[in-house]
Q: What sequence folds into this?
């Protein structure tokens, strides 16, 4: 497998697509042909051996470098988890840590069939360097938190402007900048409005946490007189380029507003259940009102992995359980949330297994137990398999994993382990001072 990519043509032979055994030809990073007739010369030939072919997946809400904090703090309520555990350790993060933590996240995502993701964190120029090296697609935002303090707001504005220009200077169409106003309880309305205006001026996306907990909503109403959705709207943050993560504690007016504005609601079921936020995103109401619907894992510290196959299953099951409906969020809709919808939410064209689309492709092992029997490949993908069944991944036609091999995996794991050791050492030294 080549570690760099120069638009090689790829021929994938004998794979299962919607019940048919076909070949897939990739030319110039796009699907050129899908069918028995697909063939001809190719720089790379992959024997599918009947593997199940699916579109590449998009994780629309994560804090990628939180891989370094996996398992560091579990079984806590959100506010205590953030203030007592997560933020004190994050204070010691360096750019190098985020470079290795993001590479580890990319490795984990590639191995489980994700080709693109939506990130909000610190040192995002380092995250961009990691994404560029790993060959994935991403929308990257600096997590803007001003804590209602004017001086901190100025610093967050400068950090956001710096990140956007450094990403735009990379000229990598697979890596997009965005603004990342964290949430209504950590960002002033001046800060929220600045983010909205800057995203409009720069024509870039918006990535924000919305209505994750009941406390967020009640505190917001007590403080401003209106609900978080209305605060975001009056600051100009609800747009068709907005991905709002969580969207759990929304009422029907909130859902109507998100639908009217064309916002994408990113469902993060595992994180919501792990942090016991107490309510499932109102999937049915948001769908009825026309909001975009996509899927995310949140960070590794509130999941604790980045496996979008698990996320599809938990989304389908949580919606059925919470809304008492065995038919809500069927497998096909869960797969659409995790692929084409997610790509669209981030302004990418991929996540679709169709001629002309960018070649985002995942092959699942046909011989895996979770694919035996194979009555329905989509049912198995959502309800039976997890990311462990993924054998081969292409992103815009670039082979990121072939037959379970990701080039440079050992180096990424070693680098991440060293970063974790340094981070814990610095945190320990500060605690014992
Ligand atoms: N400039 C900001 C950086 C924020 S990055 C995004 C933040 O979101 C935090 N985070 C992770 N998961 C969640 C969640 O589920 N809800 C809210 N915040 C989260 C994460 O730990 C990180 O601190 C600062 O000065 O803190
Ligand atoms: Zn989050």
A:
């Amino acid at each position: 497998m080549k570690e760099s990519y120069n638009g090689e043509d790829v021929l994938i032979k004998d794979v299962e697509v919607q019940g048919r055994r076909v070949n897939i030809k990739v030319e110039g990073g796009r699907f050129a042909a899908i069918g028995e007739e697909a063939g001809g010369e190719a720089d790379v030939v992959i024997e599918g051996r009947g593997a199940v072919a699916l579109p590449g997946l998009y994780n629309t809400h994560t804090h990628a470098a939180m891989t370094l904090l996996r398992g560091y703090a579990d079984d806590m309520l959100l506010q205590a988890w953030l203030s007592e555990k997560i933020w004190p350790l994050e204070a010691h993060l360096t750019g190098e840590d985020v470079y290795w933590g993001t590479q580890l996240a990319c490795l984990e995502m590639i191995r489980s069939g994700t080709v693109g993701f939506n990130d909000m964190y610190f040192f995002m120029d380092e995250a961009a360097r990691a994404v560029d090296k790993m060959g994935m697609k991403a929308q990257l935002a600096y997590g803007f938190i001003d804590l209602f303090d004017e001086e901190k707001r100025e610093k967050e504005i400068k950090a956001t402007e710096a990140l956007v220009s450094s990403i735009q200077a990379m000229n990598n169409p697979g890596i997009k900048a965005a603004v990342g106003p964290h949430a209504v309880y950590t960002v002033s309305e001046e800060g929220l409005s600045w983010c909205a205006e800057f995203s409009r001026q720069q024509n870039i996306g918006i990535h924000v946490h919305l209505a994750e907990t009941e406390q967020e909503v009640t505190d917001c109403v007590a403080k401003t007189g209106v609900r978080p959705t209305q605060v975001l709207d009056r600051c100009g943050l609800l747009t068709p380029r907005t991905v709002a993560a969580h969207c759990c504690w929304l009422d029907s007016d909130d859902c109507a507003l998100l639908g009217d504005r064309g916002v994408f609601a990113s469902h993060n079921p595992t994180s919501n259940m792990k942090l016991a936020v107490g309510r499932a995103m109102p999937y049915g109401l948001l769908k009825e009102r026309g909001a975009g619907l996509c899927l995310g894992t949140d960070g590794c510290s509130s999941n604790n992995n980045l496996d979008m196959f698990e996320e599809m299953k938990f989304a389908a099951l949580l919606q059925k359980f919470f809304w008492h409906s065995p038919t809500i969020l069927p497998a096909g809709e869960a797969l659409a949330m995790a692929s084409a919808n997610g790509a669209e939410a981030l302004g990418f064209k991929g996540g679709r297994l169709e001629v002309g689309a960018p070649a985002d492709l995942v092959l699942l092992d046909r011989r895996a137990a979770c694919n035996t029997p194979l009555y329905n490949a989509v049912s198995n993908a959502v309800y039976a398999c997890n990311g462990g069944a993924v054998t081969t991944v292409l992103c815009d036609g670039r082979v990121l994993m072939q037959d379970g091999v990701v080039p440079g995996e050992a180096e990424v794991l070693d680098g991440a382990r060293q970063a974790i050791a340094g981070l814990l050492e610095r945190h320990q030294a500060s605690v014992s001072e």
